[in-house]
Every structure is written in structure tokens, then in C-alpha cells.
Amino acid sequence: MTTGAGGASPTRSMSDTYFHDMYAGSDDPWGFAERFYERRKYALTLASLSAEHYPHVFEPGCSIGVLSDQLARRSDRLLCTDLSPRAVELATRRLAHHGDRVRVQIGDLLTDWPDEEFDLIVLSEVLYYLDPDALDGLLERLPASLSSGGEMIAVHWRHEVAEYPQSGDDVHDRLRHGPLHHAGGYRDADLRLDVFTARAGPSVAQRENLVP
Ligand SMILES: C[S@@+](CC[C@H](N)C(=O)[O-])C[C@H]1O[C@@H](n2cnc3c(N)ncnc32)[C@H](O)[C@@H]1O
């Protein structure tokens, strides 16, 4: 893994303690394994991906690995990271049946971004913990982390959370002005989801010769 963005150290105003405390209070603080809201969010996320299968996937902020488990079924290799050691321990347990195709590691997405190329990067409910300048720095780094046909999907809760430095809408507005090509999206009262690609390319229907 790389350390830092290769320039000034990125900043993060939310402390690790916030997340450590969440996991100290519960093994599933957001109810990822229980709530219909989360099952629906994951179904929307997975349905929005433009490929059935991806060789190499990266999911930073994987939490306890509920989405990761479904991503593992759509990929040859999956790297999951989270800054919380407890989350990584729980995700490691949940994902063990996938064998060594799935790696789960402790890592901060700002300072431990992997020096690898991915076909899909999944940023689900993790970017609004970053300060706006740190998010901009991360966005600049994304194209170099994606393969030529690579894709990035971002999904965030839209309701206000006082402790978060940015709202979900702030995040997605910034992403829309970033260096990646916007391929599509979905929004409702609760969540916003956007899919980006490394460059403009054929749609799913065009790839399957459904349109001239
Ligand atoms: C709301 S959960 C999202 C979990 C998962 N991505 C999903 O959508 O089901 C946010 C997770 O991101 C982790 N996290 C927050 N900031 C992070 C950072 N800078 N680097 C890595 N993980 C981070 C937290 O520890 C927490 O487990």
C-alpha cells in the first residue's frame, strides 16, 4: 500500500475514535446485516454495475463485509479495507469462505491507498467522512487506480448527519466535477448513487449489440 498522496499529507477532521466507538458499542452499528434499507441499497448498487463480473475490485471502508460478500461473488479478486480493526476482524470472519481471492486489511483510504490497478472501485457510505480538500485529492488519484475499462461506483445517504464534514449531496456534486466520466446514476429521498468510468465507452446495450 502507498502512504499518502505523494504531496502534502491529506487531512481528515473526523477522528478514528468516532468509528472505534461505534464498533465498541455494536458489531453492526449501522444494521447492515439486518435492515431492509441496507438490502435495498446493496441491490441498487449491484444492479447499477455495468459488468456481470470484474477481475479486480477494491472496496475501502468495507465495515463488517456485508456488501463485500456480494461483491466477492461478482469478482475474481477483492481487496477490502477499513480503518477499524474490529470491523476488519468481523469482515475477515464473514468473508473467510471466499478463500484467498478476498483480502481484508486495516487501512485508511487517505493514507493507505493501494498501489494497484482495479476494474471496479466501490465507495459506499465512506466519502462524506473526508474533508472537501481531502476528497478532491482522492478524486485526482482515482484515474490512475482504474484499468482502461475501469468503473467506480459511489453511494451515499442524503439526510443530514451533524458529525459528518460533508453531506451525501456535497460528495456527489463534487464527484460530478471530478476527472472520471459520469456513466449514470440514481437518486431518491434517502440515497444518491453514481457510476463513473475511467473514460467514455459503450453502454451495456451497445456492448451486447442491442443497438446499432
Ligand atoms: C457507514 S460504514 C459503510 C460500510 C460499507 N461501505 C457499506 O456501505 O455497507 C463506513 C465505514 O467506513 C470506515 N471508514 C471511515 N473513514 C474511513 C477511511 N478514511 N478509511 C477507511 N475506512 C474508513 C468506517 O470505519 C466504517 O466501517
Can you give me a brief rundown of this structure?
The protein has 212 residues and is α/β, with parallel strands linked by helices. The protein contains seven helices and seven strands, in the order ααβαβαββαβαββα.
Note down, in words, how this protein is organized.
- By secondary structure, the protein is an alpha/beta fold.
- It has one domain (36-207): 3-Layer(aba) Sandwich (Rossmann fold), CATH 3.40.50.
- The protein is 32% helix and 25% strand.
- The protein contains seven helices and seven strands; from the N terminus they run H-H-E-H-E-H-E-E-H-E-H-E-E-H.
- The chain has helices at 16-25, 36-48, 66-72, 85-95, 132-145, 168-176, 204-207; strands spanning 54-60, 75-82, 102-106, 118-124, 146-157, 181-187, 191-197.
- A seven-stranded mixed β-sheet has the order 3-2-1-4-5-7-6, with helices on both faces.
- A hairpin with a 3-residue loop joins strand 6 and strand 7.
- The chain is globular and about 55 Å long.
- The termini are far apart.
- The relative contact order is 0.16.
- Bound molecules: S-adenosylmethionine.
- S-adenosylmethionine (SAM) binds at residues 19, 30, 32, 60-63, 66-67, 81-84, 87, 108-110, 124-126, 129.
Describe the structure using short key phrases.
S-adenosyl-L-methionine, 32% helix, binds S-adenosylmethionine, transferase, 212 residues, alpha/beta, single chain, globular, Methyltransferase domain-containing protein, S-adenosylmethionine-dependent methyltransferase activity, 7 helices, disordered N terminus, SAM-dependent_MTases_sf, 7 strands, Rossmann fold
